[in-house]
From TrEMBL:
Signal peptide: 1-26
SUPFAM superfamilies named among the record's database cross-references: Apyrase
Gene Ontology terms describing biological process: proteoglycan biosynthetic process
Designated name of the protein: Uncharacterized protein
Source organism of this protein record: Homalodisca liturata
Reported cofactor(s): Ca(2+)
Length: 138
């Protein structure tokens, strides 16, 4: 009879130990992942308004509204024109506009989508930060 190797006994014990200490208690890995995918470069954090346990991860962040014609969503639109957003040497500009998107499934064969923009001009902003001359990378 061959002697039992020490590493063949320790490996299952180590795995069992890790599983018993895991806060997920055997939940699938997809439920435990926090952060960007590992095959993509990390995204820098600009502002942190809440701690991770307070973050509301539901999408959309504003609840849809039922209308007589369909469903209405609150939206924001950002103009990200890459290299054409350059307004001067080292300065890029963009715009942000808010409004509503309404999906009307019963209008016509495929339904229709209607946009309703908030009154006023879009919010304009600029930066001196750009990556390889492409603009602000929104």
């Amino acid at each position: 009879m061959a002697p039992i190797r020490r590493d063949s006994v320790l490996s299952p014990i180590f795995v069992f130990f890790l599983l018993t200490l895991s806060p997920s208690h055997g939940a699938p890995a997809a439920e435990m992942v926090i952060g960007p995918p590992v095959d993509q470069p990390p995204v820098p954090v600009v502002h942190v308004h809440k701690t991770l346990h307070e973050y509301n991860s539901k999408y959309p962040l504003t609840p849809p509204e039922a209308t007589e014609n369909g469903i209405r969503y609150r939206i924001g639109l950002i103009n990200d024109a890459d290299v054409t957003s350059k307004v001067s040497n080292g300065t890029w500009a963009s715009q942000f506009k808010t409004g509503y998107l309404e999906w009307r499934p019963k209008a016509g064969k495929s339904g229709e989508v209607v946009f309703e923009w908030d009154e006023g001009e879009p919010v304009k902003f600029s930066t001196h930060f750009g990556y390889e001359g492409r603009g602000m990378e929104l």
